[in-house]
Amino acid sequence: MGITALTPTELAEGAAQSQIEFSDNRLLVDLCGEYDRNLTHLESQLGVQILRRGNQLTLIGREDARAQTAHILQELYQMLAQGRQIDAGDIAGLIRMGQTASADERAEEQLEMFRTGRLEIRTRKKSIIPRTEAQQAYTRALLANEMNFGIGPAGTGKTYIAVAVAVQMFTDGHVDKILLSRPAVEAGERLGFLPGDMKEKVDPYMQPLYDALNDFLPGKQLQKLMEERRIEIAPLAFMRGRTLSNAFVVLDEAQNATEMQMKMFLTRLGEGSRMAITGDRSQVDLPRGMQSGLRAAERILDGVEGIGFSYFTSADVVRHPLVARIIQAYERDEQPPA
Length: 338
Hints:
The protein is an alpha/beta fold. 45% of the residues lie in helices and 15% in strands. The chain is built from 13 helices and 11 strands. Strands 8-7-9-10-6-11 form a 6-stranded parallel β-sheet. Strand 9 (247-251), helix 11 and strand 10 (274-279) form a beta-alpha-beta unit. Helix 5 packs antiparallel against helix 6 (104-116), helix 7 crosses helix 8 and helix 11 crosses helix 12. The longest helix has 19 residues, at 63-81. The radius of gyration is 23 Å and the shape is globular.
């Protein structure tokens, strides 16, 4: 973090203080969180003490920590005032944004992006705000390119943001349908050993895509759109022979597509369509000796006009903080000895 917590001696000696007042006590309750858990999280991460009295919060600590904490509290309060719900991920994102700032001006510039909503993705159920600089760049690339690859470790929001952009473009009328796909490659049991018909066999592999859609669209509307086939979720193998026009197409877990499958999928792109391809090069489940189509596409398509590549690292993980540490540990283990 670069900021250490205050020692009991420093607190007793009267560290510097500053106050923030909030006009709406109801919003302040949500800002603090149940049992003040949001304040506790900020205290532990930024090395400050936060005291609550009435509609006023007192910040005790070093100047840089108090300034960053005040910025974050004000941004969270503005989100609540705009009718948004805040969670631990929003707080973590704002903390991360502040850590990349080299001066107060830089911090204010970054936090302004959250306030103005310039990169906000609006869907029927919720709005999504990219939480890291890599996520912001990825969102811009999805909107700017007809085809964009999102490559990086699990938990960085690659698929979640791509599906959110797809839903926004669909509801805004820029595309007529959404098509989400994954290679049905198993990391354990095989499709044939699972009970049920083809749909019942395939659905477990597609569940993360269903989960993302359920976050962005009301249940009845989503069911109706799927019945009308304006939203489709299908295994990659089912894409052969199709031309996907006026659609937003997302290929998830692309590292598990073979070279031939990847070429087949990419050439399905039709008029008025966009494609987002997401994958994690460290989690290939293909049989030994078979090259990942994602790696091949990354090499072959580099520099092709209209195709973008967005990269994520463990610093962009927005799941539990432990996930980032796990990824970093594996990355260190995979590095060759010096």
